[in-house]
Amino acid sequence: MRLFTFGCSFTNYNWPTWADLIGLEYGAFHYNWGYAGLGNRAIAERLAECHARMMIGPGDTVLIQWTSPLRHDYMRTNVRKLEGTYWATHGSIFSKENSKVFDYKWINTFWDEKAYLIHTLNNITLAIQFLEGIGCKWMMTSMNDMQLVGNELSDDTFGGEYQLKDKMRKFYDVFPDLMFYKEHIWDKYQDHWVDPIINAIDESSEFSWKFRFDKNRDVEKSYPVRDGLWDEAHPTPRQHAIWLLMLKDRMGLDPRLTHEQGQLIHQFEKIKENTKTFKEFEDAIMNTEWFIQRQYRGL
Predict the structure, then answer these.
(1) Of 11, 35, 209, 239, whose Cβ has the fewest other Cβ atoms within 10 Å?
(2) Which architecture characterizes domain 3-205+237-293 according to CATH?
(3) Per-residue pLDDT tens digits for 182-194
């Protein structure tokens, strides 16, 4: 029995995620197709690519973590990234990193909040029917609550991804003509959905990580710096583990961490304790067995 996991950086990141942790229970038969920065079109397409390559079958398990509708996925087959993928997506079209790619002219020409929401809902619908047709075991979750939308984005958010919570409303309240998506995706398949991973961060902020600001690291410049430190927006291994326990329970697995999972979490927490900047942390993990054995999959 094989395990296939799909998602963005909340599935495959610079340290073990929920996918890596549960993958330990499947040994060499876990294939993590997550990739940082992907949107929902790319996640759905990579599910199709994975099936074309590996023929997902009734005995397999597929876990999909959907991300934000604010992302625009595109490929550049003449530019292969260091990790080996052609996908050029880099998070929200409103992030600072994407400001030169998606300028005001592009946004005014192509961006439409409702349309991008529909794209996401269609990709999820296609994935559900695809997996149902295969007859495999499958579960889905999301980075944050995909049923919520907002008309404004906060200027004080991580990469322009999170919307103002006090402005958030259910998408079917904002767009009543899209109610049928809620009925078909969430109501009909409610046993296949797990609460958003962002909930684990909100409910366990004591386990979040901060790194010392390093002016030579562009990646850190996009985060708000307070008292010389910036908050890492991604769940830490401990926060991933907290969410994983809920996933395992929903899957009918033993809702406890295995010894191997606990060891991996502890290993990376010790590395974090012994480093200060993100660069120091990255340099340290390159010597770990986890980093040496990880690989990126797909085009």
Answers:
(1) 209
(2) 3-Layer(aba) Sandwich (3.40)
(3) 999 999 999 999 9
